[in-house]
Amino acid sequence: MSEVKSTDPDVASSHDEEITPSGPAKNIWSRIYHDPWFQVSLISFISFCNPGMYNALTGMGGSGQVDGTVAANSNVATHACTAGAALVLVGAFYKYLGPRLSLLIGGWTYALYAGSLLHFNRTANGAFVIAAGAILGLGAAFFWVAQGTIMVTYTNDSTRGRAIALFWVVFNLGGAIGSLASFGLNYHSKSGTVTDSTYIAYIVVMLFGWVLSVLVCSTESLSGKYHGKRISQDSKALNWSNLQRTIMETVKIVFDWRVMCLYPMFYNANVFYSYQQNTVNGKTFDLRTRSLNGALYWIAQMVGGLLMGSILDLNGINRRARAWIGWAVLFVTGMAIWGGGYKFQLWNDQRMQLGFKQDIDYKAGSQYLGPMFLYFFYGAYDSFWQSYCYWIIGAQSQNPVVNAVIVGTYSALKPAGGAMAWRINANKINAMSEFAMNWGLCIGSLVVAVPTVLTLRKGKDNVETDHC
């Protein structure tokens, strides 16, 4: 497979010169702080506090409201704004901002969105929720490009799967804990909406995560344990020469055919949330059970991330073989899980026709257990999907400039797909049609990705082999 390399001569390899943090790292804190694995762990915990809590809200169905239409329309605004900002601005100009500033720009918007839901509980002002969703979309673009670039760049082929697993466990622990907290706070609620204290708790945690962003450092500050490429200070200068180089480099990466074959998978990464969260969870179960299901969904994500990360870090086999194994896991489990979903949707359509809605409680025995396990496996499959997407992005390069652009396209295309799906959900399209769209897009996008898997280089580590 031909290589996709950065055209920026100012991006230096750590193999060419050893770059260490400014000043000697004499104390323990400095050594820990500049360690790549500490930074991966830190971004995982920040994600726990920000998008993890956001996932807990949306996972309850309708963001904790009886009528999910306002939340669905807000999610359309969120995903659309993320798509535009990540594709046009954030990924291409990541090297000028760096991860810390990107996270500080983006992280506070999660608390704003939770605050808008608190405001909606008191005033029923849906316009503010939608506007906050749009602002969150812009902030999320900065957040996810920084997070993704750290996760896939600060590690290599032999450790990337574990880094993704670590992130997925810690990140989704936020959704699990948040959902369990909502389950407890709303256990005796008869209103169908969550309490004010639920939203206030989310706001506090989100703001704490945002403050932690000041501790994130870029590749040029990492210790000698980092073996990827670093960005020189000269290339960060905002001048016409650097901007021209950035634009040319971005165009080359975005239109590389191997990256383009992954675009349908990227687009599909957020498509199934609206169906699973609003249609399956939001319309089938009562409030406290929706919260419990949300916790199970994110716990399944943790389990799935660990499993897929372990598979993608298998020792003794080359990069392409691991890519094929991961692809096969997605295909086989996708057919099995969506096949079970088809049976559920037939059953639930019959219930809806009889007027049953938001009625199943977790104490309902066998009536609850089947849908509960399906929802659990839906969560696991999402973690399989996104873990694989991140892993194959990292398999293309260990250059932060290249990875930021590819992560930017990923961060743009997945909310673009999500915006489409949430809009379909807000328009109350037939549930079976929603389901069929999800299943078809999953399997179809896997087929389109086959050429990239076929041509992936076999080497066991990508330190010297940047693809794109």
Automatic annotation (TrEMBL):
Q: Where in the cell is it found?
A: Membrane
From the Swiss-Prot or TrEMBL record, what is one GO molecular function term?
transmembrane transporter activity
TM regions (residue ranges): 36-56, 76-94, 101-120, 126-145, 165-187, 199-222, 255-275, 295-312, 324-342, 436-456
Instruction: Provide the residue span(s) of the region labelled Disordered.
Output: 1-22
Which Pfam families would you find in this protein's record? MFS_1
A GO CC term assigned to this protein in UniProt:
membrane
Bilayer topology annotation = Multi-pass membrane protein
Keyword terms of this UniProt record: Membrane, Transmembrane, Transmembrane helix
Per the record, where are the segments of Basic and acidic residues compositional bias?
1-18
Keyword set includes Hydrolase: no
* Protein name, per record: Major facilitator superfamily domain-containing protein
Give the source species. Aspergillus bertholletiae
